[in-house]
Amino acid sequence: MRRWIAMAVCLAATAALLVVALPADPDGVPGGVVAGYLAVLVLAAAHGALRALRTPLRVPPRRPPSAPIAALLGLVLLAVPVGGALAYGSAKDEATQKMLLDRLAAADALVQAAKDKPFDAARDDYRTALSAYRDLHRRHAGSRAAQRVPDRLRTYYATVGAPYARKDYCGAVQPLTYLRTVPADYGAKDLGDLARWPDDRLATSLYECGAADLAHNGTGASRDEDDFSELLTTFPRSAQAAKVAPALGASIDAAGRAVKGSDPCAATDRVKALGTRAGDLPGDKAGASAALAQDARRADGYAESGAYACGVHQYRAGDFDSAQQTMDDFAAAYPHDRNRALARKFSIAAQIAQHEPAAGKHVPTLATGGGIDVTVSNDSPDPVTVLYTGTVTGSFTLGACKGCSTYASRAEARLSACKAGKSYPHRTLHLPAGAVYFMHKGGGSGVSGTPATDSETLRYGYIYTECAYSVTSAFDL
Length: 477
Hints:
Strand order of the largest sheet: 4-1-7-8
Order of helices and strands: HHHHHHHHHHHHHHHHHEEEHEEEEE
Number of helices: 18
């Protein structure tokens, strides 16, 4: 028809379409571009039809082509756009596959980068990667990327659980606990056997980490959670849970033997902590309640003997204040213990030694009596408690002296206290020869209650007396 301008417009429109459409994009050609191109085609067809009716054909030759040739040319003209559309659709599908493979690669890269980070820092990357795998699996199930997701998930699980493979059991607890939440997010059915992959590994990690903590300090306090408690709660029927009570029992026995060692105080603290831990563990579901209760009772027995041994150790080491407190607590907590009477004597001796350190060189015994008389009298308006130690240890209380008064000074007391011819509350001790240390304690209105101490080396053939009186500032001898 020789309508060169119209032909140029059509070619330009087609070229513009190709520029926008190629290379093929997963999103395809924008709808506005397609609509505009169709409008150009409609206008071109209408314009061509109108001009064809008015324009004689000169080239090729004047003789019009036969009908078959015209039909063939029409089919060719139809095949070109149809073939182009099919080719473009195929290219678009390939572009989509590439895009999905790129998403898969990006998720894989996140997993690989996260494996070198602490789990807390890597958790978000793991979740992002899992979300990408889930999206490929659910929304693009037929894609090449989705077909590779199962293998990627196995790599994902192995990467997250890598601390377990390295036998870093404490470090594996968090990642494996996280993996147990994946089925709820991804779908247990879709995961297959991976849904149960972390269970045995987590149970082993909880036991091994708890056992390591047990060997370290026994209190379960080195981590935020007690691994044994979590194991007995989460996997109560597991083989690992069955080992908890025996492990605690062995540690309790070892700590119990240590109370007879060089540091009974530390051993006693440890065995108490172990007993508390055994008593606090949730053993009902695991069927371990009886064994754990037995462990706790055995720990109490060790703690009882350990408390006494600790007090003796503190006394011998010169820590008299701690020794007194330990022995007082022991006597109160274990009223039927065979060492209770001796513990009370250690408490008496420790009180005296706090004010008279030389008294602490004598270790109290249950010995009583002797052949030397020592009479202690109270010239004080308040009751007086008398403590003594040395070859014999004990204490007693003298009642207040009626008609007696507090002295203004020690000098005055030494001139007037315990005069002959006056009756005072008194008690006569029968002690063996050797050093003896006294301490008087008392209190009352106007008296500070500050104790006073005295010492004497007793010899046969002598009669000894002690006089307790009070001055405005302290008790004295």
